[in-house]
Specification:
Order of helices and strands: HEEEEEEEE
Largest sheet: 8 strands, antiparallel, barrel
Distance between the termini: 69 Å
Radius of gyration: 30 Å
Number of helices: 1
Oligomer: single chain
CATH topology: Porin
Structural class: mainly beta
Helix content: 10-25%
Amino acid sequence: MKKKLTLILLCFFVLGFVFAQTENEVQPEEDDEYEYVYKANQGGDSYIRMSLAVDIPLKPEIPKMKVGGSGTLGFAQYLNSWFALGGDFSFAYSETIGSNVYYFVPIMFRATAQLTLDKFELPLTIGLGGSFQNYVDRLYFGLTIQPEVGIFYRFRPDWSIGAMCGLYILPQWYKNQTYNYIGYILTGTIGVRYHF
């Protein structure tokens, strides 16, 4: 009797186990299809930008001011797949007549609209902020504007490399308006962006 009872309990146990497994398995319905969309950039994505530039003064003209250079470190976050907000700071210099050096340190807020074509990204950026400017013994802090356009190649999901062309617009306004001046410096930049 004990053997029969044990055998019956074992059969119920095995059958219960088999039915439990089949009930837990969810069979996908034919019209339940999941569509995954992969985009290079989506809202909430961010990047850090590191770049080096050649700065060509347009005003004041060469030879008053020679070709200089700058380095930039920046951050941006996408609000959607094509628009990002962020900021950066740079350190720039140009040698002038008499072997003096003009330094400026822009701190910018940036808005970027970007078109993406496969692995190529085409950012159009406008930067607005201020810069500390120093020449010999004169120090000035003033408005700085920099529009930029560029092209980047996303060679890995988290890295892109590219080039940008921009223009620093550096107005200097004084109480005595005869000293007012606007400087224009063209920038040619190469850089990398780390995306996360």
